[in-house]
C-alpha cells in the first residue's frame, strides 16, 4: 500500500515539513529534486531534498549511504594537522575548548558534505544556563571557542548572535573567509517546517521565527535544529552507536528525551521532533504531576532532578544532585531504593519502543550517564526481565558526554544534513 501524502516528510534536517503538493511529492519520491528551475538551495542556504516515505508494506527502503567516520579515541588528543597554523584565535577563560587544539571526537576529515575540504564551520549549542560555540575545521581543529550565559526569553537569540559574532571576530580575515556554514541548536519545541523555536519552558521563549536572524549578521547559511535531535544523531552516527542501524539514544539530565534510528535512518515525523521518552506515563494515575501537565511521566521519576528530589523526600537530606545519590549506592539503602525506582521507570518507558522496533543498542547521554555501569547494568537487567519475544538491547554510555551537542552542531553544519 502506498504511503499517504501526510506520511512523507522531507529527509533533510532543516526540511520543509509535510509536502502538500501530491504531484511534486510523487516526483520527489522517485528521486527528483523538484520541478525544473527550482534551485537546489533556498535563499537562506538550506538545501532542497527529496522526501522520505515510510516503508511500504512488504518491504523496506534502502537506507542512505553513511558518510565514513572514524572518530579518534577520547583518552588522548587527536593530532593537529602538520603545517596548519592558527593565528588570531585567542583563548578566553570561559571557552569550551582551547583554540589551536584538536577536538579528539571529530576525527579526520574523511567527509565534508557539500563544503570544500578546507572549509570552516560554526556551531552553537544553547542550554538553559549557558550556550557554547566553536569554529572548527574538518579535522576538528578548534579555531575559536566561547561560552556565554543564556538570558531568559527571546533575548537569548540576541546572545546567540553575539556569541557567533565573538567567535568570528577571533579569526583572521583569511580564516573568516573560510567559514562556510553555521548551525544553531536549541532546546524546547522546534518546528523545522515553519523555521520556528516554538517553546522553551526553561528559557522562556515562545513562537520565535528564526528567518535570517543568524544568516544576515554572520553572512553565511545557518541551519537550525533541536538540540537533543542533533546530539543524539551525533552519538548514533559517530559515537557509541556508530555502525549500528537500530539505536535508541536517551539523554538523561534535568529532563529526558532522545532520538530513535531504525534501519539506518533517523526517525522524524510531520511534527518534526520525536523522542519525548521523558513524557511517557509510567506511574499513571498515582504518580507525581509532570511539568507537561500529565501524571507519572518517566521524567517525574528518572530525571536528575527527580532522583535528587526523591532522595530528599525519603530521607529529609538534601543533596547536590543525582550524582551524589549514585555515589551513595553502596552504603545507603535509601539511595539504592531511589535509583532502583528510577531504573524501573526508565525500563517501563522503553519497553514499548523495544517491542516496536527492536533496537540493538540503547545509548545513554546527559548528566546521569556519568553514573556508568551503576546505571547501564541495572537498566539492561530491568529491560531483559520485561521481555519474552524480542532480544534485549545492549545499554551503553554515550561517547561524547556533555560535548555531544557541540560535536553534533559542527557535523550538522559541515554535512548540511542529519544523514
Automatic annotation (TrEMBL):
Biased composition (Polar residues): 84-99
Species annotation: Nocardia arthritidis
Domain of life (superkingdom): Bacteria
Protein name (Swiss-Prot/TrEMBL): ROK family protein
Low complexity bias (residue ranges): 14-23
Disordered as annotated region, ranges: 1-110
Biased composition annotated in UniProt, kind: Basic and acidic residues: 1-13
A Pfam short name: ROK
UniProt biased composition (Pro residues): 66-76
Family listed: Belongs to the ROK (NagC/XylR) family.
Amino acid at each position: 500500500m502506498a504511503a499517504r501524502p501526510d506520511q512523507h516528510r522531507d529527509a533533510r534536517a532543516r526540511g520543509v515539513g509535510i509536502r502538500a503538493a501530491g504531484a511534486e511529492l510523487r516526483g520527489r519520491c522517485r528521486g527528483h529534486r523538484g520541478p525544473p528551475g527550482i534551485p537546489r538551495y533556498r535563499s537562506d542556504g538550506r538545501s532542497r531534498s527529496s522526501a522520505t516515505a515510510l516503508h511500504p508494506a512488504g518491504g523496506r527502503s534502502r537506507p542512505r549511504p553513511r558518510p565514513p567516520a572514524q572518530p579518534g579515541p577520547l583518552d588522548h588528543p587527536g593530532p593537529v594537522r602538520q603545517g596548519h597554523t592558527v593565528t588570531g584565535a585567542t583563548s578566553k577563560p570561559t571557552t569550551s575548548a582551547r583554540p589551536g587544539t584538536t577536538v579528539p571526537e571529530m576525527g579526520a576529515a574523511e567527509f565534508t558534505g557539500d563544503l570544500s575540504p578546507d572549509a570552516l564551520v560554526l556551531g552553537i549549542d544553547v542550554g538553559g544556563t549557558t550556550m557554547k560555540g566553536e569554529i572548527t575545521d574538518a579535522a576538528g581543529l578548534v579555531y575559536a571557542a566561547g561560552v556565554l550565559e543564556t538570558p531568559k526569553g527571546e533575548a537569548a537569540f540576541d546572545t546567540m548572535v553575539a556569541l557567533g559574532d565573538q567567535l568570528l571576530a577571533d579569526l583572521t580575515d583569511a580564516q573568516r573567509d573560510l567559514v562556510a556554514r553555521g548551525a544553531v541548536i536549541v532546546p524546547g519545541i522546534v518546528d523545522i517546517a515553519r523555521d520556528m523555536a516554538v517553546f522553551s519552558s526553561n528559557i522562556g521563549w515562545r513562537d520565535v521565527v528564526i528567518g535570517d536572524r543568524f544568516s544576515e549578521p554572520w553572512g553565511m547559511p545557518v541551519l537550525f535544529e533541536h538540540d537533543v535531535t542533533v546530539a543524539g544523531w551525533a552519538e548514533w552516527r559517530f559515537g557509541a552507536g556508530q555502525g549500528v542501524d537500530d539505536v535508541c539514544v536517551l539523554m538523561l539530565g534535568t529532563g529526558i528525551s532522545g532520538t530513535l534510528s531504525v534501519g539506518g535512518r533517523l526517525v522524524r515525523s510531520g511534527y518534526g521532533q520525536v523522542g519525548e521518552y521523558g513524557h511517557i506515563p509510567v506511574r499513571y494515575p498515582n504518580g507525581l504531576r509532570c511539568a507537561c501537565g500529565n501524571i507519572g511521566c518517566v521524567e517525574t521519576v528518572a530525571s536528575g532532578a527527580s532522583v535528587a528530589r526523591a532522595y530528599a523526600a525519603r530521607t529529609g537530606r538534601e543533596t547536590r544532585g543525582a550524582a551524589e545519590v549514585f555515589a551513595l549506592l553502596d552504603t545507603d539503602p535509601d539511595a539504592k531504593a531511589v535509583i532502583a525506582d528510577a531504573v524501573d521507570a526508565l525500563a517501563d518507558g522503553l519497553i514499548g519502543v523495544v517491542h516496536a522496533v527492536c533496537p540493538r543498542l540503547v545509548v545513554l547521554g546527559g548528566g546521569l550517564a556519568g553514573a556508568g555501569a551503576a546505571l547501564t547494568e541495572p537498566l539492561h537487567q530491568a529491560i531483559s526481565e520485561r521481555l519474552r519475544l524480542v532480544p534485549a538491547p545492549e545499554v551503553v554510555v554515550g561517547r561524547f558526554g556533555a560535548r555531544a551537542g557541540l560535536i553534533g552542531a559542527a557535523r550538522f553544519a559541515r554535512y548540511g544534513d542529519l544523514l
